[in-house]
Structures
1.
Amino acid sequence: MADILSSFNFDTGFDEIGSYGNSRVYRHSNDEYVIDSEEGRKVASDPSVCGTTFESLNLAMARYAAKFIKELGLLDGKVVLQHVLRASLGYRIRDALHETGKGFSEIWTRPVYSYTSYRSHTTDDLEITYDEPAAVPEGEKFYLLKPDTEATGFTSLKVLDHFFKKCKGCQVEAVVLYGFISRPAIDRIKSYLHSKNVKTVTIAIENITPLAENGYDMPLYGID
């Protein structure tokens, strides 16, 4: 086991800090967390999971995440949900937030690679083809919650840069990432947000994983 962990450079430096139902929450640093659950392991490791079973497992994970996000105080203020029209809705965090009774605003953005990108995300050649609404909250503080799969982080850089360019006078307390997330993506997104003086909070499912050379597959979960 030690040889496997070292060969793929898996990070195991996490401390357990709490639990919700079938889940356990681990902290890597002050702003990096992992939620491990039976449902998360099934989604991550069983490619046969699909349809309504897939949706119900993701909703269960989102409910754990919503409880933890609330505990962190990230639902105390105004929340804006930034959807990336790809994986975002599949994570079901929108539904879990509705169940808490917390109100939130939503932005729907569609970034597209300008080349055939299946299993190859090695360059950041993306363009925004859809964005609604065009306006974002002005003159008030809020948390930006972004559910998505974070592999290279290139999509997030495009979406977030687009967001901040149209964000006139708004004050983002923190950007909260939720989903299956890699270490290269976190480092890349954190660096960008640090330049904007915005905190990054990461809530990853199962692990903060290494990334394969194609910028797409996550070795912890096998070929996507």
Note: The mean pLDDT is 86.
2.
Amino acid sequence: MNNYFLKRYLKNISKKEIYTLANKYDIKLNSDEITNIYNYIHSNSNKYFKNDLPIEKIISDTKHILTKSNYNKLIKLYDLYKDKI
């Protein structure tokens, strides 16, 4: 995906969109997880696009944001799509 469109999408992403996207992949987020993901995206997306935040660090950080079950689902999803990133 074009970085311009991805940056724009992430800049405007809402908590509801985070919930809906996660739910689409059977990741059932609680309200704390949604808020923490939302804050993380808004605090770190610029670092990611400047190549100052590697995907491995993002994955590591999510371990502290998500429940164990949701984290494991995310890892399975990441493993499925990582070659397309």
Note: The chain has a mean pLDDT of 93.
